[in-house]
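Action item from last meeting closed. Structure (1471 res):
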């Protein structure tokens, strides 16, 4: 403008003359100025006037930007070397201009300045075209605003700025303002947000403007990543201001604001933002949508970090409580009936994560007790949104560990109030809250079935106080029926409230109503699965019987596999629940398939059901036909017994993987319980979705888990899920431990483990652990071992809530707790398994000591099995020789968590470090953790020397240290032997026998190494027993303080163990006792023979101590380790070796031998008969040993045995038989054994010589022949066929018949042999000790087997005949009823092969049924012919015999009565 005027003036003056140069013009100006000194002041005023008349005030403030430093040319600016100086000079110039302009306009400079600054802010905000949809400035706008704020600060500092006028100007153009601009004014102290908001007169407009801009801010925060820090700081400042003003009692009200207006604005804005979020959640949000981002952003302000200690705790609590109330009461349109129907859709995992996140944030500052109280207050005073209330309850029990008890108490108070005043609202609340909490599973709350039964299933229930209470309860339950899920009605029906009998009609009416409703829903009580859990919250309509039946089948097969019997649940269902059994269970069981060549468990189970008539014939026939068709259509590569599994959807598995990954990401802060608990709840839901059992989360009360250690199998999908969970747990544990030690990680691990403890998942987890630890243990990495050890600890922490585990062999048959289960999986038999055991025990103990260091010892004891700690001690002693020395005071130091943090590569270093810990050593002082001598032996016996980590020499050295240096001198109270070597031997024998009897000692492969009767283990331990036994013999005669009369310790062990076994003749009891005795015998044979025959005492006569051995033989070995009246060869030879050893130590060897063998004749006669049986093999050794050691001839009693043997040989030779030497029964035994060795033809020929023998020999020989007859039935040779057994039995029967014939011919009474008593001085006392008790019991069988050989007329003349015959018959019936005669029956195939042979008819009498029939007929025919004196003791016999055969008893009584009547009618003899 000035330039144009200058040009115009120049051209004007030069219009009439020449144009002058610029230099001439300047020279002229200089000359004129010099001529007018006052001209300068005039020019300055003209310039100012010119500027004022043409100044654009609207752009002045925006154009003021300090020039770059390098362009400053004024001397006064050169002194300022910072850009702020430039801004200050610019601001001063603008301030001066504003002052002049205000003076010119006649307005206050502060008002003008405020208007100018407000106008400039609007221009900055409107510079962006889309400013109406934004709350943030861009970088250019932010730079301009910064300069403008500096000018405003100058003006404010010089009292040239009015805040009130500025606020009013801004509100005039509020729609053009951006929220960030106002926030900068607040931050730079131009005008505070509170002052700005208070200056607006229209409250609703203020609220609307703030709400719109806050919403835009939330949307931009999530959408933009350039200026996120500024945006979040803005949001935080606004929220802090709202909370401080809206939730504080003494608000700082401004002078121009009505009282209460600012708090109203604050509360209104917060409420509208929350309502916006809740509306968005209700409408359904999509991930990554702008609305979702805005809601997520707003919910993030409900964090304790947002307020950064600027807000008091009371104000924050009021704000959070108000927010919670607003959520719970938002749109209360749902009725109670809607909540009853829909609440299962409102569980934690199904609630929107944004809503659960805001719940968790609101729970942080409010205590659980206050939360429960607030919930109760809201429910009592407001109409509520039941969806939000119940989802809040779910979040509460998930995220707060104390919530279970608090909710329980709250519900109890509600129920008490409800029944006290028939308060329906309290009743509704209680039931809805309990059902909602139960939806989250047993890890956080009781199942609904358990709660209902605990609340109403006893006389102490809330309903038991009066009839009014009962009516109220059933009226309430009846009102629920149209709306509630079938599962709850089934719980009410199957676990009904306890009702007095006089009010039973109330219960029956409800059950009728509920069953009608279930029928309408096409759900039947009868269609419940056999093993279905009523505690679950799953809706039956979604789990039809056809989906439950396969699970029932698998569980039934598992039970059948372990017990061999049809499960009780199946039998009950076949009777009481036939619709489900026939329509669902059997079709699931009888699924057609290709049958395996070797019948499996399913085949055996089906056949058992068929034999029990539990499968309809038509259904079974259809099943077999379908299996045959499947066999014909079987693909070539299909394995028998296999069926194709349907494909599984991978999507649920992928969702589970994602959820586990999110949990892994959250492990950077393992203490944040609510976040981790929420994620674990999601994982639990995903696990159930994958397995198709999302709601089946019942408790384990009164249940058990069946597992198979040898063949643990899982379905493919189950294994995938369990592997994901186990891997995640291990990884999370490692991640959490990298941030904090176990004791500072919070309870996330316990919650995660409880997720794996749900009813349907825990068996799969334990099965997989069996596979990993029992099969793949050596291949597990260090992190896997650490993770699984921690998992075992947390499972042990929950042991009280978990069932017992029943495992197949080699584990114990009894139920195991979870810690004992892990202990049973860890074996020490090989070098690899020992290392795994050491790693696992080290990790588990270290983790426990660190995790529970601040808790009571009881918690630690519950987590760890004593067996685990004992195994750790065992492995440390075994592998580290330095650990065998006592620890010094300096060794026991350090923190128990250090082993957990050490590198896991060097397990030996970690184990030794743990061993030296003071905390661990103090733990070992507890009695339950003592490694006793017995414990050590049990573990050492499992060691397999061929694959041991110790060499033979190292192992022997370890045994010597453990026995003689550690446990032998150790006090008995600490698990030692008190220095008593005999005690050490006693315990060793006891443990050895237990081990060999246990299933763990057996190798189940086909090529098992048989040691000590089938047990495999550390054979060196048995060598230690032999060494200790020798040391014991070389010591004094008896330990100090003990009497020598007590006998050898070994027999005391045997006697105690045998007494502990049950007695009886059933097969199981018999086999257990036989197995125990075989072990006793093998141990005896492995020890020196002097154990059997003790050294003779110093006094005369020098009789060795054999009483203990004789008692063992008479009471046990005679019954289980003998063959037809003789002991086995090994024990017989061992006894005579001991006898010769005792003789060698005696002053008179011959006298010692004679006295011992003479004692045998009365006390243990089977020793002598055994010597006769094995004499051909026994005599050479006896003769050699006696001749070598003692010189001279054999003792007289041994010579008698030789003479008896010679008599038997001569009797069967063609020569004339010599008389039988004394004692006669010994000669009879020798002859019996000799007869058994020759053929049938020779026997018949040589038996004729018996006619010349003495009567006593014949009686004894007949007894031995009876025993031989029974032995031919009971103990046939292993390789004998049925026909060979029949031939031997026929031979034995013929021999008995021949001998009986001689007895009858010579009129020798033989009936006494069937009436033997122990009290008989000679016959009974000896013979009853020669035969096993079973043979004596079977004498009735032998008696009636000889019917065809009886001379009936001769027998009838004997007074004792009828008594013996009836007694044998009654006993035979008892044997038949007890099934004992089956052992002596001959197979039909053997009899058929003998048809036509001589004597086959007599053999047929050996059939128990045929024999019983013939015996009965014989008695009925004989009774009428018996004389009167035969009935003398019949009444007493019948009184003890019972009513076995009424016809025979009637015949006896009739005959007896008839004979008495005959005596009455006879004429008396008077003279």
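Sequence:
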């Amino acid at each position: 403008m000035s330039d144009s005027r200058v040009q115009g003036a120049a051209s004007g003056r030069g219009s009439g003359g020449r144009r002058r140069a610029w230099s001439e013009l300047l020279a002229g100006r200089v000359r004129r100025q010099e001529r007018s000194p006052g001209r300068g002041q005039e020019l300055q005023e003209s310039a100012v006037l010119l500027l004022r008349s043409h100044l654009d005030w609207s752009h002045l403030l925006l154009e003021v930007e300090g020039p770059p430093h390098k362009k400053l040319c004024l001397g006064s600016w050169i002194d300022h070397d910072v850009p702020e100086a430039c801004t200050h000079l610019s601001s001063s110039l603008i301030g001066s201009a504003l002052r002049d302009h205000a003076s010119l306009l006649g307005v206050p400079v502060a008002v003008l300045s405020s208007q100018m600054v407000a106008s400039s802010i609007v221009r900055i905000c409107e510079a962006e075209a889309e400013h109406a949809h934004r709350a943030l400035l861009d970088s250019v706008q932010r730079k301009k605003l910064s300069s403008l704020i500096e000018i405003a600060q100058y003006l404010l500092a010089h009292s040239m700025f009015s805040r009130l006028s500025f606020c009013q100007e801004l509100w005039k153009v509020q729609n053009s303002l951006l929220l960030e601009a106002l926030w900068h004014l607040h931050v730079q102290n131009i005008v505070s947000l509170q002052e700005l908001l208070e200056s607006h007169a229209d409250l609703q407009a203020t609220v609307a403007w703030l709400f719109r801009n806050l919403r835009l801010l939330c949307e931009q925060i999530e959408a933009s990543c350039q200026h996120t820090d500024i945006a979040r700081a803005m949001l935080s400042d606004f929220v802090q201001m709202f909370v401080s003003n809206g939730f504080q009692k003494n608000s700082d009200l401004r002078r121009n604001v009505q009282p209460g207006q600012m708090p109203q604005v604050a509360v209104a804005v917060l409420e509208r933002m929350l309502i916006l979020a809740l509306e968005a959640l209700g409408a359904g949000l999509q991930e990554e949508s702008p609305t979702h981002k805005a809601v997520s952003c707003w919910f993030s302000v409900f964090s304790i970090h947002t307020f950064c200690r600027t807000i008091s705790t009371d104000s924050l609590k009021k704000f959070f409580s108000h927010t919670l109330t607003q959520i719970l009461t938002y749109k209360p349109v749902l009725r109670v009936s809607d909540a009853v129907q829909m609440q299962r859709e409102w569980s934690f995992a199904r609630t929107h994560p944004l809503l659960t996140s805001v719940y968790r944030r609101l729970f942080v500052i409010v205590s659980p007790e206050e939360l429960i109280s607030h919930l109760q207050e809201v429910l009592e005073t407001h109409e509520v949104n039941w969806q939000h209330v119940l989802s809040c309850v779910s979040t509460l029990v998930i995220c707060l560990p104390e919530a279970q008890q608090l909710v329980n108490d709250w519900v109890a108070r509600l129920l008490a109030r409800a029944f006290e005043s028939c308060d329906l609202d309290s009743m509704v609340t209680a039931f809805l809250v309990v059902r909602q909490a139960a939806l989250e599973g047993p890890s956080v709350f009781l199942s609904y079935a358990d709660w209902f039964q605990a609340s109403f299933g006893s006389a102490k229930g809330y309903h038991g106080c009066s009839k009014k209470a009962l009516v109220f309860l059933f009226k309430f339950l009846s009102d629920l029926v149209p709306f509630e899920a079938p599962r709850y009605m089934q719980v009410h029906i199957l676990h009904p409230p306890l009702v007095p009998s006089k009010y039973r009609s109330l219960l029956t009416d409800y059950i009728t109503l509920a069953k009608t409703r279930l029928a309408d829903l096409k759900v039947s009580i009868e269609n419940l699965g056999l093993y279905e859990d009523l505690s679950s919250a799953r809706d039956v309509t979604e789990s039809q019987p056809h989906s439950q039946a396969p699970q029932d089948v698998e569980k039934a097969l598992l039970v059948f596999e372990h017990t061999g019997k049809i499960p009780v649940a199946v039998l009950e269902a076949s009777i009481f629940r036939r619709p489900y059994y026939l329509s669902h269970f059997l079709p699931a069981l009888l699924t057609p398939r290709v049958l395996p060549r070797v019948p499996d468990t399913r085949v055996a189970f089906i056949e058992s059901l068929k034999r029990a008539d539990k499968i309809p014939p038509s259904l079974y026939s259809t099943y077999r036909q379908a299996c045959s068709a499947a066999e014909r259509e079987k693909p070539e590569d299909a394995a028998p017994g296999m069926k194709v599994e349907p494909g599984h959807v991978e999507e649920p598995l992928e969702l589970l993987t994602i959820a586990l990954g999110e949990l892994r990401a959250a492990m950077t802060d393992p203490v944040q319980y609510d976040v981790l608990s929420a994620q674990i709840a999601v994982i639990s839901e995903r696990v159930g979705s994958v397995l198709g059992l999302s709601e089946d989360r019942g408790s384990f009360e009164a249940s058990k888990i069946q597992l198979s250690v040898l063949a643990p199998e899982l379905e493919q999908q189950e294994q995938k899920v369990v592997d994901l969970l186990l891997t995640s747990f291990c990884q999370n544990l490692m991640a959490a431990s990298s941030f904090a030690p176990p004791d500072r990680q919070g309870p996330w691990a316990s919650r995660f483990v409880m997720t794996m403890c749900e009813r349907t998942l825990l068996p799969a987890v334990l099965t997989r652990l069996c596979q990993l630890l029992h099969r793949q243990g050596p291949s597990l990495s260090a992190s896997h071992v650490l993770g699984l050890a921690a998992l075992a600890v947390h499972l042990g922490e929950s042991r009280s809530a978990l069932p017992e585990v029943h495992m197949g062999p080699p584990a114990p048959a009894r139920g195991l707790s979870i810690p004992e289960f892990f202990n049973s999986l860890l074996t020490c038999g090989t070098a690899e398994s020992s290392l795994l055991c050491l790693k696992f025990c080290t990790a588990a103990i270290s983790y426990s000591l660190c995790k529970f260091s601040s808790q009571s010892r009881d918690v630690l004891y519950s987590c760890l099995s004593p067996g685990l700690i004992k195994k750790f001690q065992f492995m440390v002693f075994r592998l580290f020789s330095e650990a065998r020395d006592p620890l010094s005071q300096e060794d026991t130091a350090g923190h128990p968590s250090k082993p957990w943090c050490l590198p896991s590569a060097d397990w030996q270093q970690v184990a030794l470090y743990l061993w030296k810990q003071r905390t661990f050593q103090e733990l070992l002082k507890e009695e339950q953790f003592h490694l006793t001598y017995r414990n050590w032996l049990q573990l050492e016996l499992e060691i397999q020397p061929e694959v041991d980590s110790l060499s033979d020499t190292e192992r022997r050295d370890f045994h010597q240290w453990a026995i003689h240096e550690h446990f032998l001198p150790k006090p008995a109270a600490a698990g030692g032997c008190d220095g008593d070597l005999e005690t050490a031997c006693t315990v060793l024998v006891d443990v050895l026998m237990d081990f060999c009897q246990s299933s763990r000692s057996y190798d189940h492969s086909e090529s098992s190494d048989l040691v000590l009767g089938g047990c495999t283990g550390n054979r060196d331990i048995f060598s230690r027993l032999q060494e200790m036994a020798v040391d014991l013999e070389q010591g004094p005669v008896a330990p100090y303080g003990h009497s020598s009369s007590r006998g050898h310790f070994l027999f005391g062990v045997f006697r105690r163990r045998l007494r502990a076994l049950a007695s009886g003749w059933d097969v199981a009891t018999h086999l257990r006792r036989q197995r125990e005795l075989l072990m006793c015998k093998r141990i005896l044979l492995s020890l020196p023979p002097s154990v059997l025959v003790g050294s003779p005492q110093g006094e005369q006569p020098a009789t060795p101590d054999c009483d203990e051995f004789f008692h063992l033989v008479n009471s046990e070995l005679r019954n289980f380790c003998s063959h037809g009246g003789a002991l086995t060869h090994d024990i017989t030879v061992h006894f005579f070796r001991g006898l010769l050893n005792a003789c060698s130590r005696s002053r008179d060897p011959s006298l010692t031998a004679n006295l011992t063998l003479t004692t045998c004749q009365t006390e243990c006669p089977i020793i002598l008969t055994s010597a006769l049986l094995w004499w051909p093999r026994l005599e050479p050794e006896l003769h050699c040993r006696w001749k070598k050691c003692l010189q001279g001839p054999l003792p007289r009693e041994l010579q008698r045995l030789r003479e008896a043997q010679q008599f038997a040989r001569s009797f069967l030779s063609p020569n004339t038989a010599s008389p039988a030497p004394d004692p006669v029964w010994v000669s009879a035994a020798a002859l019996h054994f000799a007869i058994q060795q020759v053929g049938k033809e020779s026997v018949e020929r040589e038996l004729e010589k018996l006619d010349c023998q003495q009567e006593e020999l014949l009686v004894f020989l007949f007894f031995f022949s009876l025993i031989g007859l029974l032995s031919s039935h009971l103990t046939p040779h292993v390789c004998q066929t049925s026909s060979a057994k029949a031939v031997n039995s026929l031979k034995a029967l013929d021999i008995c018949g021949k001998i009986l014939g001689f007895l009858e011919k010579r009129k020798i009474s033989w009936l006494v042999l069937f009436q033997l008593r122990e009290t008989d001085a000679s016959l009974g006392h000896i013979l009853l000790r020669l035969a096993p008790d079973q043979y004596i019991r079977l004498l009735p069988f032998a008696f009636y087997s000889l019917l065809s050989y009886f001379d009936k007329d001769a027998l009838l003349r004997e007074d004792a005949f009828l008594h013996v015959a009836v007694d044998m018959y009654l006993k035979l019936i008892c044997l038949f009823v007890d099934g004992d005669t089956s052992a002596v029956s001959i197979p039909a195939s053997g009899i058929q092969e003998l048809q036509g042979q001589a004597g086959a008819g007599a053999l047929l009498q050996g059939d128990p049924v045929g024999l019983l029939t013939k015996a009965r007929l014989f008695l009925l025919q004989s009774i009428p012919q018996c004389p009167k004196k035969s009935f003398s003791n019949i009444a007493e016999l019948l009184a003890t015999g019972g009513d076995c055969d009424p016809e025979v008893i009637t015949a006896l009584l009739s005959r007896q009565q008839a004979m008495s009547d005959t005596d009455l009618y006879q004429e008396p003899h008077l003279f």
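Note appended to the action item: The first helix runs from residue 2 to 13.
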